[in-house]
Design goal:
- This protein is mainly beta.
- About 10% of the residues lie in helices and about 40% in strands.
- It is built from eleven helices and 75 strands.
- The strands form 20 sheets. Strands 62, 64, 65, 66, 67, 68, 69, 70, 71, 72, 73, 74 and 75 form a 13-stranded antiparallel β-sheet that branches. Strands 49-52-53-47-59-58-63 form a seven-stranded mixed β-sheet. Strands 3-5-8-7 form a four-stranded antiparallel β-sheet, with no helix packed on it.
- The two termini are about 100 Å apart.
Length: about 1150
């Protein structure tokens, strides 16, 4: 073959196991080289294995040196390699290393050796020359064992031997293991280190035996130390002695039953075991002591246990009730109990005395259980007399001590019963609906022991039948309204039907007539009643009158006769008998964020006296339709398509009408549609009111002058807010889905003032002007700031917070000539609290993940300005708490020097007898101390702390906690009773329900008038706060105190005058000292000025220099002016004093 030709072979090897044979393959490459090229050769060496002790540790010494020749005359260089194998024996872990120089290679140790892990190594060394030809040699290394392991005891068991056994009894066997690999080093012998007079050990087997007789009562355990020694000098220590290990073993002396048990008492007594004791109830416990521990004592009852009334727990000696006891049968038991340890026993007596208890409820005797009386009359004497006795009292002639009660609470004001069982009437009973019953079922309770807390009871029913009297007038009982179509000829309209709550003998047959005393003349003329039928006397025209409310007098057949008047509504049905005329209408649409979907916004309007004629009309576009709107030709409904933008659209339609009475004709109709996009901010920052007694249609329908109540409300808002009407939006008019009541109307509004006004500002101003609004618009305001959690337990019995649910699907209110399509913004109750507000950075802050990076001076978590100051004549409006929680926390810090002031007030801003919610919380400083008043709507409580004075000008912290059952106030985090106050609210209300804005530092309302109207037991102080309030939080959310939406004479940030001084804890004396120092400085300054006037020339030079500097840039300056900013120098001279830059608080922008 040619040089470099390769033979590729596969070598196969298998073992000789016939049943489970294993095999392996390997690929072999044999390369053909030129004949003159020769492989290198190792020089001859001693092939005997190299022997090394396992504790050999000279890593620099050469274990063996190998020499080789390259067989290339001009190139003697060689490459040596120590080949790693697949096992530790072939140097897989690099225990040996190879160092080579030219033609020699040294094998050295690189890791420590361990005979017990590996006893020999087979190393393969390869050498390679320039031609990549190689030779290999094998080096065998033998590891020699040394004594480098100490005997170790593997099992830590304990031994045991019975007491009183003869010497020589085996106790236990111990065993130690020596990990050395050869018998020359790992043979172990055993010796005792202590108690050699008590125990012996076999040195070869480790068996321990006794040398004496043991008594457990003298000593029950021994800790025996055993030493294990191997059989050669230690390689670990230099003493020349073998390795030695030791271990303590516990040997216990086991007990023998050689002592009898003894009861601790000869007689046990159990007194006053009640006869109604529960099964398994504990009676008493006996105990027998036995000096032997190996023989447990077992207890049993061997005599005196009549009817097996008791049992004893065999291991504990506890005696328990096994059967129901009866004092009337057996009053005393004498039990004999036994304690037995398997060999010996002992007996004791147990005396058990049974106690009589009230275990039999009262038993009713026969009495009149079905009395009959007349309704609506008081009954003289006893209706019936209930009789019962106590079976526990054997003498029936003795006082049975029975107390009687009426069970049903709603019957207790009507019916009474005394101790003798005499049942009497307190008020007359009613037989008739809706509140009465023909038969009153009265449940009477009889309790023994005069009704004591432990008394037993029994119930009995007394059925009182009422004799009917004719005390109810009949009334109409029929479906309303009745429809009678116009153009119908006179005839019967309907059969009249009536109902009477009295019995049949005082009810039908009924007589009907039109009540001419209350009916108008037109009704009397056009209707009549004949034999119970309502009859039309004329032909009606709906265009003249659509509805008749007919008063009908109905008389019953009772004695005496009762007559009542009911109203029957008759609607004149429409017949299309009038031609239509051209009409025009307007539709206003608010599109939330411009994302309204396809929405029905209103119908095409034409003037037509007929109003039930829609099926006779057909609607179409007059010309080409508008791409943003769709028309329904059958009913004239206009649909605004998604994507319709802002603007006004004049739409023109053609309407065709034809009926049996009207020939086919066509008119035009014009609809002016105005679409306005409203941003999210306007809705989320909106104010709200809830009206009652008005529908959405009535609110948006224009009057004869073309102005609706909605338009008037918008105009009044503009006037109250001192804003243009274009900046006011009344964008929501709807009936809340939470109430099936169309007389409740929710209205939402916003005002743009760059940015939008805050809700608390809008609601406060509306509250201040609520009476004028009601008068001018002829409306009734039920709520300002709609809150579904305000009425306790109306929605839920636990925590509640209101949530504004905003939908892009509009809410449409349709009328004839105008339609309003507003934002569907509904307040929903959420039954949860303590929801952290979303991370929205305020006051120019920048969001960074879950936090805000704030400008200097804004320290709140959302860049709130945390402080606000007052001077005694101001106030600030903050958002309401907005939640009624199972547990709440409000915290704040304050600094003041006044003794009496209002810190904050949270409660109603106006009196509204329609709502009936009067909850409030007020924190005050009274006589320098913190005083808190809280009212959950059912009574005011007062909390006061007397230890800490707040009017020292220093910072103080106040925390208020309230739950359903407790109210707590804490000052300066103090935990003692002197600086904290705790009380319970006045029930039954359980929540603080407030929807009005929080007022801080003072109040915008007349608290005296509010307190008087609501009838509060306490009137909050109205004196304004002087000082600084900071760090106010409610349930973890921080108030932006320094940026109130509405305020008067407030100091944002506590930056001015006295409020700042208070925040640093200055007192009045210190302020006087400062003023004196300032006066002295002014006198000195005046003297200096007088002195410096004598140096006018110098000042003139200074002025010239200033003038030159100021005008330098105007005259061109130098060639390198750009290196300086001369405006800085100008500002230094021209700027006003620094104090003048701080605007008054009421003028600062927000």
């Amino acid at each position: 073959k040619e040089p470099d030709y390769k033979f590729r072979l596969i070598a196969h090897a298998r073992d000789g196991n016939e049943t489970l044979q294993h095999s392996s393959n390997i690929d072999l490459d044999i390369r053909v080289v030129e004949s003159h090229k020769k492989a290198p050769q190792f020089l001859p060496r001693n092939l005997e294995p190299i022997s090394i002790r396992e504790n050999y540790s000279d890593f620099d010494a050469t274990l063996i040196r190998l020499e080789a020749i390259s067989n290339i005359n001009d190139n003697p260089d060689l490459l040596f390699e120590l080949l790693p194998g697949r096992t530790e024996q072939t140097n897989k872990g690099n225990t040996f290393r190879l160092e080579s120089t030219k033609s020699t290679a040294d094998i050295k140790l690189s890791k420590r050796l361990d005979y017990e892990s590996n006893t020999e190594y087979t190393l393969i060394v390869r050498v390679q020359n320039k031609y990549n030809l190689a030779a290999e040699t094998v080096v065998n290394i033998e590891i020699l064992d040394v004594n480098d392991n100490i005997p170790v005891f593997r099992e830590m068991k304990k031994g045991s031997v019975l007491e009183n056994e003869p010497p020589g009894v085996p106790v236990m066997q111990v065993r130690a293991i020596d990990a050395d690999g050869t018998s020359a080093h790992n043979q172990v012998t055993y010796y005792l280190n202590n108690y050699k007079d008590l125990f012996a050990i076999d040195k070869d087997t480790g068996n321990i035996t006794t040398l004496k007789v043991f008594d457990r009562e003298a000593e029950d355990t021994y800790n025996v130390k055993v030493i294990a020694i191997d059989n050669s000098p230690s390689a670990l220590f230099k003493s020349g002695e073998p390795n030695k290990g030791e271990q303590d073993f516990r040997i216990e002396i086991a007990d023998k039953n050689d002592n009898p048990p003894h009861f601790t008492q000869a007689v046990y007594v159990a007194n006053s075991i009640p006869e109604d004791a529960n099964i398994n109830a504990l009676v008493t416990e006996v105990e027998a002591k036995d000096m032997d521990t190996a023989s447990p004592v077992v207890y049993s009852i061997i005599a005196g246990n009549t009817d097996n009334s008791f049992y004893i727990e065999g291991t504990t000696g506890k005696i328990r009730v096994a059967k129901q006891l009866d004092y009337e049968t057996i009053t005393e038991y004498n039990l004999t109990v036994r304690a037995f340890d398997g060999v010996y026993d002992d007996n004791a007596t147990v005396k058990i005395f049974i106690e009589n208890v009230n275990d039999n409820p009262p038993v009713f005797e026969e009495f009149e259980k079905n009395p009959t009386i007349e309704e609506e009359k008081l009954f003289d004497g006893c209706i019936t007399t209930v009789k019962a006795y106590d079976p526990d009292i054997k003498d029936r002639s003795a006082d049975q001590h029975i107390a009687y009660f009426i069970v049903k609470e709603d019957q207790q004001p009507l019916i009474g019963i005394d101790k003798s069982g005499c049942m009497t009437l307190k008020k007359p009973l009613d037989r008739d609906e809706p509140d009465g019953f023909p038969m009153w079922t009265v449940i009477v309770m009889a309790r023994d022991e005069d009704g004591s807390p432990n008394a037993l009871r029994e119930l009995v029913m007394v059925n009182i039948t009422l004799i009917d009297i004719n005390d109810n007038a009949p009334f109409l009982d029929m479906q309303q309204p009745i429809v009678w179509y116009e153009r119908e000829r006179p005839g019967n309209i309907t059969k009249l039907k009536a109902r009477d709550y009295d019995s049949d003998k005082n009810g039908p047959p009924f007589k009907f007539r039109i009540d001419e005393e209350t009916a108008d003349a037109e009704t009397i003329e056009r209707f009549s009643i004949i034999n119970g039928d309502l009859r039309a006397m004329v032909t009606f025209d709906r265009e003249e009158r659509k509805i008749y409310n007919i008063p009908i007098a109905i008389s019953d057949n009772g004695e005496p006769t009762m007559t009542g008047t009911s109203t029957l509504t008759v609607v004149i049905g429409d017949v299309n008998d009038n031609p239509m005329e051209e009409g025009s209408s307007s539709i206003f649409v608010y599109s939330y964020k411009g994302k309204a979907p396809d929405t029905d916004i209103g119908r095409v309007y034409v003037r037509d006296p007929d109003d039930w004629d829609l099926p006779d009309k057909h609607f179409s576009w007059a010309g080409i339709g508008h791409p943003s709107f769709r028309l329904n030709p059958r009913n004239g409904m206009i649909t605004m398509l998604s994507g319709a933008g802002n603007g006004s659209f004049l739409l023109k339609f053609s309407v065709t009408e034809e009926s049996a009475l009207i020939p086919r004709h066509k008119v035009d109709a014009f609809v002016n549609v105005t679409v306005k996009d409203i941003p999210e901010e306007a809705v989320t920052k909106s104010g709200s009111i809830r009206l009652y007694g008005i529908t959405a249609e009535e609110f948006v329908t224009p009057d004869d002058n073309g102005v609706s109540k909605k338009d008037l409300f918008q105009a009044r808002l503009a006037t109250m807010l001192n804003n243009s009407i274009e900046n006011i939006d009344v964008f929501t008019v709807l009936h809340s889905p939470h109430y099936n009541n169309k007389s409740l109307l929710d209205v939402r509004f916003s005002a743009h003032g760059s940015p939008y006004y805050a809700p608390e500002k809008l609601n406060t101003i509306v509250a201040q002007n609520s009476k004028e609004l009601e008068h001018d618009l002829d409306i009734s305001i039920m709520l300002i700031n709609i809150d579904e959690c305000l009425f306790e337990k109306l929605q839920h019995n636990s925590s509640c917070r209101s949530f504004l649910n905003i939908s892009t699907v509009p809410y449409a209110v349709h009328t004839n000539t105008s339609s309003f399509v507003g934002v569907r913004a509904v307040v929903d109750p959420l039954y949860m609290c303590h929801v952290a507000e979303p991370i929205v950075c305020l006051n120019g802050g920048t969001p960074l993940g879950e936090r805000c990076e704030c400008p200097p001076g804004l320290e709140g978590p959302r860049c709130e300005l945390l402080g606000i100051g007052f001077h005694g004549d101001g106030w600030a409006i903050m958002p309401p708490t907005g939640q009624a929680c199972d547990d709440s926390h409000l915290g704040l810090e304050l600094a003041t020097q006044v003794s009496d002031a209002l810190v904050f007030y949270s409660g109603p801003m106006i009196y509204n007898d329609k709502v009936g919610v009067q909850d409030f919380m007020a924190l005050e400083v009274r006589n320098g101390k913190a005083v808190l008043h809280v009212d959950y709507g059912t009574g005011t409580v007062k909390l006061e702390q007397s230890a800490i004075k707040l009017n020292d000008g220093k910072n103080h912290r106040i925390d208020v906690y309230w739950t359903k059952t407790t109210i707590e106030m804490k000052v300066d985090n103090c935990g003692t009773s002197t600086c904290m106050s705790l009380t319970a609210p006045v029930g039954p209300n359980e929540f603080l329900n407030v929807n009005s804005p929080l007022q801080i530092g003072g109040t915008v309302i007349d608290l005296k008038d509010i307190a008087m109207r609501f009838g509060w037991a306490y009137e909050p102080v109205e004196r304004g706060f002087v000082g600084c309030i900071r760090n106010m939080t409610i349930n973890g959310n921080t108030y932006n105190l320094g940026m109130p939406a509405l305020s008067r004479n407030a100091d944002p940030g506590c930056d001015h005058g006295a409020t700042k001084a208070f925040s640093f804890g200055f007192d009045s004396n210190f302020l006087v000292a400062i003023l004196v120092c300032v006066a002295i400085l002014l006198i000195l300054l005046l003297a200096v000025v007088i002195h410096r006037r004598k140096r006018d020339d110098l000042y003139k030079d200074m002025d010239d220099i200033r003038e030159n500097i100021i005008n330098y840039e105007d005259e061109g300056g130098g060639e390198v002016d750009t290196g300086y900013d001369l405006n800085v120098l100008r500002r230094i001279y021209d700027a006003p004093p620094i104090d003048s830059k701080i605007a008054p608080a009421t003028h600062q922008g927000r």
